[in-house]
Amino acid sequence: MQIDVSIVIPVKDEEENVEILANEINTAMSNESLSWECLWIDDGSTDTTATELKKLNEKDSRHRFILLARNFGQSAALSIGFQNTLGSIIATLDGDGQNDPADIPRLIEILRKEDADMVNGIRRKRHDSFVRKISSRIANNFRDWVTGDKVTDVGCSVRVFQAKCVDRIPLFKGMHRFFPTLVKMRGFTRIIESPVNHRPRMRGITKYGIQNRLWVGLADLAAVKW
């Protein structure tokens, strides 16, 4: 079955956020004439996230889910999501509630109006710790220097793009940090940036740290450069 839009959300231990985020997605998409689905990828959660996703699906079949046997990482979760979507347009969000689903319809409108390949979000007034902000800035600047590409906020998970952009995209552990560059490498160069809302984390615990994001992200640049 072909539909218009697939929203892909990787989650790990986000039991407190699933229902709230799903309700926000329903509200955001309620005025859209486009058909849509939301595909949740549970990346080896150890809490009741899987139970919450099953309850959500029973209540609203537009919310589908895939349960991974263990934690494979965000890139693998997204890749599995992309392979199982039904939409000709794909949107992505983080599952921690910091991304605002209300931005999705506007980004879709930009994508279609401009006949673009991808629209990347730029987080306005980031509600993150100083460590997270400075780590992101260092990684962004170094990444742009190495790749010769210019992406304002590569760490922003809010983006919409044509599904064909990620067909056979190279898969490696830090793939999600380089989506715009990898998409351009495949010949999809019509990429637009647009400001999006960013919210403080209200529930759950962040998985971000210097060890698991900054240094790993810098190391992944070698693979992309190659």
Q: Your description of this structure?
A:
Helix content is 38%, strand content 19%. The chain contains 7 helices and 7 strands. Strands 3-2-1-4-6-5-7 form a 7-stranded mixed β-sheet. α5 (130-147) packs parallel to α7. The longest helix has 18 residues, at 130-147. It is globular and about 40 Å long. 40% of the residues are buried. The model has no long low-confidence stretch (mean pLDDT 84).
What key phrases describe this protein's structure?
7 helices; 38% helix; seven-stranded mixed beta sheet; alpha/beta; 226 residues
Determine the structural class based on helices, strands and strand pairing. alpha/beta
Structural shape: globular
Number of strands: 7
Could you tell me the strand content as a percent range? 15-25%
Tell me the strand order in the biggest sheet.
3-2-1-4-6-5-7
- State the helical fraction: 25-40%
* Largest β-sheet summary: 7 strands, mixed
Element pattern in H and E: EHEHEHEHEHEHEH
> What value does the Rg take, in angstroms?
16 Å
CA distance, first residue to last residue: 38 Å
The tally of helices reads: 7
Q: Any low-confidence stretches, pLDDT <50, length ≥5?
A: none
Average pLDDT taken over every residue: 84
